[in-house]
Amino acid sequence: MGFVVRTAIVYYSYTRTGNTHRIARLAAETLRREGEKVVPVRIRPLKEAANFFAQCAEAFFAKKPELYRTLLDFKDFDRIIIGSPVWAFKPAPAINTFLAECGALDGKEAICFVTHAGGAGRKNALEILKKKLAIKGACIAQTAFFRGDETSEECRVKLSKLLTNPS
Ligand SMILES: Cc1cc2nc3c(=O)[nH]c(=O)nc-3n(C[C@H](O)[C@H](O)[C@H](O)COP(=O)(O)O)c2cc1C
User: Fold this and answer.
1) Right CATH number for 6-164 from 1.10.340.30, 3.40.50.300, 3.40.50.360, 2.40.37.10?
2) How far is the CA of 116 from the centre of ligand 1 (A)?
3) Exposed, middle or buried, 79 (CB in 10 Å: 0-12/13-18/19+)?
4) Taking the CB of the first residue and of the last residue of the chain, which one, N or C, has fewer CB atoms within 10 A?
């Protein structure tokens, strides 16, 4: 049997909307079709801000809310995909906590994506994710944006290009 790539998809998605969750699910489907082993991990803060302005403030000031623990061990994975909504031009706060606490990612291939509405700040949010991943030692292979209202078919096409033709 050949080498099977093992990918962890770590993402935050606000409970009431779920756009990033949808992309993470479609990404998992795409990779599984390629015969890869995929483990999606949805991270959640113990206290999830539910008020738009509180969410924006937490994101803007790069807060790190405490998260429910995950059992993820990166030793078991070759690649990590990080997904986040854009909040106030930045990644969602839960992702800050995760990347601060996840330990070294030396030599792991990393892909990051953000989901957004109008798109303001999407590049900035991706740059922040890329920097945080690079500090951890990960090799950034690809990045992508997804507008929240893109159809699942449009997203599947983008994901297929993103995940199955690494540049
Ligand atoms: C607090 C908050 C701040 C947001 N800020 C932005 C923003 O700066 N730019 C943007 O394009 N979309 C922004 N959005 C829209 C979300 O990025 C978009 O709806 C995203 O797909 C939500 O993903 P989710 O459903 O997985 O949480 C914001 C949404 C929220 C709740």
Assistant:
1) 3.40.50.360
2) 5
3) buried
4) N
